[in-house]
Amino acid sequence: MSSEIKFFHQNIYSKLFGLLIIFSWLILNYFVLFVTRIDPYQEMAQKIFYFHVPSAWVAGIAYLVVMISGINYLRTKNNYWDYVGYASAEIGTIFCALVLITGPIWATPIWGTSWSWEPRLTTVLIMFLIYLGYFSVRNFGKSLTTIKSISATIGVLAFLNVPIIYFSVKFWAEEVQLHPQPEMMEQPVDIYYTFLFSLIVFFMIYMYLLNYRIHILKIKSKLENILEDY
Amino acid sequence: MEILQYKYFSFFFMAYFVVLISIIIWFLFLILQEKKYLKKYNDKSN
After folding, report:
1. What are the sequence ranges of the domains in chain A?
2. pTM
3. Alpha-carbon dihedral of residues A211, A130, A181, A196, nearest 10 degrees?
4. How far is A78 from chain B (nearest CA, A)?
5. Closest Cα to residue B22, out of A10, A95, A68?
6. Facing residue for A52 by CB, picked from B15, B22, B23
7. How many CB atoms lie within 10 A of CB A180?
8. What is the pLDDT of residue A64?
């Protein structure tokens, strides 16, 4: 007889972490709306930056975790790394989608167009499409171990695009660049610290969703093992 | 509210809610998934 598994939120630390995130999110809203200065040209559109950029950072971190777990899975064949990689790829893709949605919302009033095929935007879109391919592979075929190995390999290779996204503003000629390139260290204190705080809050959301998803994938795997024994 | 008077508030509002609602929807999806698998698991293992 197997032992009973508890709900994720029955763990006091998960509950406290969730409450901490809600509290931090409310503080972040206060800082974004009432503490940071209003840009004289972009006005409220500039404040999208506090949600757009952290989403991009979290997507990058999530894909880094996919790569590390992919390498560890290929090395050890331990299912734990497969859960971490899969869960992180899902969250990374959600945040990548948020980048691709909030970016055009900002660009519509500022650029006068919602999309431009400039390097940063195009490389982020490519990243998003690569990970849609990753999920197609995971839902394809019968041999589970092979699928896990193939998706781990894709996760490792796909990460090569992340530095390209980051350095895309330097790789390509200035004439084709449209994406803003603010130097965060040179920003006023209110903008700089609110931005740092938004990075921390988004990272906490990522950690929380990652742990929750890993917990579910473990239950799913144990359930599949039980069903196989029947 | 002073912030409502600034230009492009609707764009900020839209972007903010896209982020917030997406995270909430994903969270609700996880709750439902957990409930589904845990119920099945506890039924089968007992």
Report:
1. 3-229
2. 0.93
3. 0
4. 22
5. A95
6. B15
7. 13
8. 96
A2: nearest Cα among B32, B43, B31 = B43
Angstrom distance (rounded) from CA B21 to CA A27: 18
Out of A6-20, A137-151, B15-29, least confident range: A137-151
Would you list the DSSP string of B2-40?
A: GGGGSTTHHHHHHHHHHHHHHHHHHHHHHHHHHHHHHHH
Provide the ipTM: 0.93
Of the candidates A32, A40, A44, A36, the one whose C-alpha atom is nearest the C-alpha of residue A188 is: A36
Q: A13-55, pLDDT tens digit by residue?
A: 999 999 999 999 999 999 999 999 998 888 999 999 999 999 9
In this complex, do A3 and B45 lie within 8 Å of one another by their Cβ atoms? yes
Model pLDDT for residues A178-198, shown as the tens digit of each residue: 787 777 777 889 999 999 999
Q: Do A4 and B42 touch (CB under 8 A)?
A: yes
> How far is A9 from chain B, CA to nearest CA, in Å?
10
In the block, which residue shows the tokens 């763990």?
A11
A73/A78 Cα distance (integer angstroms): 6
First to last CA, chain B: 57
Q: Show Cβ contacts of residue A179 under 8 Å, excluding neighbours closer than 6 positions.
A: A118, A119, A120, A121, A168, A169
What is the per-residue pLDDT for A141?
64
Residue A19 C-alpha, separation from nearest chain B C-alpha, in angstroms? 14
